[in-house]
Design brief:
Layout: H1 27-37, H2 44-51, H3 55-75, H4 82-115, H5 117-129, H6 134-141, H7 145-154, H8 172-184, H9 190-204, H10 211-220, E1 249-258, E2 264-272, E3 278-284, H11 290-305, E4 315-319, H12 323-326, H13 328-337, E5 339-343, H14 353-367, H15 375-391, H16 403-416
Parallel strand pairs: 1-4, 4-5
Antiparallel strand pairs: 1-2, 2-3
Helix pairs in contact: 1-2, 1-3, 2-3, 5-6, 9-10, 11-13
Length: 418
């Protein structure tokens, strides 16, 4: 019975002041601790408290060691840990699965070779010639090893397989035509070269060369362009700028062309987002102003519809956020003409990707391969470049036709009712 007058018992309180990690005990340490429990005057609880571990954990080690010693004594062999046994059994099951799979594949191949008995010996000869052992090939294909060895020694040399189909056409004439084209157009790859060759063949009434043949000839003579290795775009545009009907959406942008003497020419242009025709442009050695953009609009409208005061139907006018396009007078003038001003999001040139692509085409195929000593030479050659682009430049989105070829074919199909 406990009296209320008895002094209170002192209780042991442990204060945890830091994160304690579980200690990993080696096998030797476990054996030493278990042996220590068998010493006179020692117990599992005392040894566990002395070394700072749970008594039940030490008791489990002691029990497992006793059980393992009895098992080893009864079997007369060493005791293997259960984890190693499980890993070994898992490996055995995996090997058995692979063996069964390979056995099934072997049976399938053997049945297939039985159905093609005339070709079995020839296939065996090919395998042996490739370095396979004769005995292994004979066993796998169900052949007699002496018969295979003797027939291999007496078998005549196999004739090379003859080429099927028509012989390849001579490449000298095609190579000359390709070299003549890329001498004037060094930035054209095999796709656009094939488009020009196809155009010549259609004009002369003869069959056009195959695009794969053009690629093969250009590759054999080191005439292919180096692959573009530009970096990925930082911003992806999910919209679609192109339209299926002409005079539905026009786009505009500007670029700067530097002459060799340091003079610069600023150019603004207008494209149709269906047929990609460069309908009009303005060029100046000063900056592009709102008045220049309004002149560009008038020139594009007159090019497509003649001297009209207003468009017969509304057309979208897609531009970036340049000050010349955002000017109040410019936007009012566009609406008076029948154009609907549309601007891209800020810092998103991909939203006007068709105009950006035209800028790259103009600089790559025309500006960089031309001699431009001064601004006057740029202004003089600019209409020549745009005429070549509209009349002759193959465009991938137009089936490798030029913009005006595409317009002519579309007009003919519309008139004929196709």
């Amino acid at each position: 019975m406990v009296s209320f007058n008895d002094p209170p018992r002192a209780e042991r309180v442990e204060v945890i002041t830091s994160v304690q990690r579980r200690r990993h005990w080696t096998t030797q340490e476990k054996v030493r601790l278990v042996e220590e429990t068998y010493l006179p005057g020692q117990s599992v609880s005392l040894v566990a408290r002395r070394h700072g571990l749970n008594a039940n954990q030490l008791f489990t080690w002691r029990r497992l060691m006793a059980r393992g010693a009895l098992t080893a004594a009864g079997a007369g062999e060493e005791v293997v840990p259960a984890s190693e046994l499980r890993a070994a059994l898992q490996q055995i099951r995996e090997l058995q699965r692979l063996l069964g799979k390979k056995t099934l594949e072997t049976e399938i191949l053997r049945e297939a070779m039985e159905r093609r008995r005339p070709q079995k010996v020839a296939a065996a000869h090919d395998l042996v010639a490739g370095g396979r052992p004769v005995s292994a090939v004979a066993s796998a294909l169900g052949l007699s090893r002496p018969h295979l060895a003797s027939s291999r020694q007496t078998a005549p040399a196999r004739k090379p397989i003859a080429r099927r189909g028509r012989p390849p056409a001579p490449d000298a004439e095609l190579l000359g035509a390709i070299q003549a084209l890329i001498a004037d157009l060094p930035t054209y790859g095999y796709r656009r070269v094939h488009a020009l060759l196809r155009r010549q063949a259609e004009r002369d009434g003869r069959p056009a060369p195959n695009v794969k043949r053009v690629y093969r000839v250009m590759k054999a003579h080191d005439l292919l362009l180096q692959r573009h290795a530009g970096g990925a775009e930082t911003r992806r545009h999910e919209g679609k700028v192109a339209v299926a009907v002409r005079n539905t959406r026009w786009c505009s942008d500007g670029l700067e062309i530097a002459a060799e003497n340091g003079e610069r020419v600023r150019v603004a242009f207008a494209l149709d987002c269906c047929d990609r025709e460069a309908m009009s442009y303005v060029a100046t050695t000063a900056g592009i102003t709102g008045e220049d953009v309004r002149d560009l609009m008038v020139a594009a409208v007159e090019h497509r519809f003649g001297p009209v005061n207003q468009l017969p139907s509304l057309i979208e006018w897609l531009t970036d956020n340049g000050s010349c396009y955002l000017a109040r007078d410019t936007r009012r003038f566009a609406r008076d003409l029948g154009l609907v001003p549309k601007t891209t999001p800020l810092e998103s040139p991909q939203s006007n990707g068709m105009a950006e692509a035209f800028v790259r085409t103009l600089k790559r195929d025309y500006v960089r391969v031309s001699i431009l000593p001064d601004a006057e030479s740029v202004l003089r050659q600019l209409p020549v470049w745009l005429a070549h682009y509209n009349d002759l430049h193959p465009h991938r989105a137009l089936g490798y036709r030029s913009p005006r070829e595409f317009i002519a074919r579309s007009t003919q199909e519309t008139v004929s009712g196709l």
